[in-house]
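Q: Could you fold this chain for me?
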Amino acid sequence: MTDPVGGVGNSPATYTASTSVDRSDQMGKDTFLQLLVAQMKYQDPNSPTSTTEFMSQTATFTQVEKLEEIASQNAELLALQRSLSAGALVGHTVSWTAEDGTTQSGTVSSVRFGSDGANAVVGGTEVPVGRLTEVSLPA
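A: Sure. Below is the predicted structure, expressed as structure tokens.
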């Protein structure tokens, strides 16, 4: 049997996964573009940036853009995978830790998708998929 992880007081802790990461310690494409424009604006007219160096910087900018696109596509794929996994719960018996710390169980009749993620509907009660502790085939 599993015990809920304790949160503040006696209530179990719940955690929500995020699909995006905001890191202020890394530069994005906007910062890179601002630096490139500033470099071009303040370059020495007697010694301009070589075309090879300029092309290298442009290629780096393109790489940053493509990496951001890939990260966005990966986030979309992860959301789709989570939705498909949640939909596969219909008809299965699940157990979860309720707000009061007790273990509840029942059969999933449907799954609802909202801005807060997927919720399994068990006996009229919506249970966040992240709170599920066990999934099994119905008896």
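A (continued): The beta strands are 93-97, 103-114, 117-122, 125-128, 132-136.
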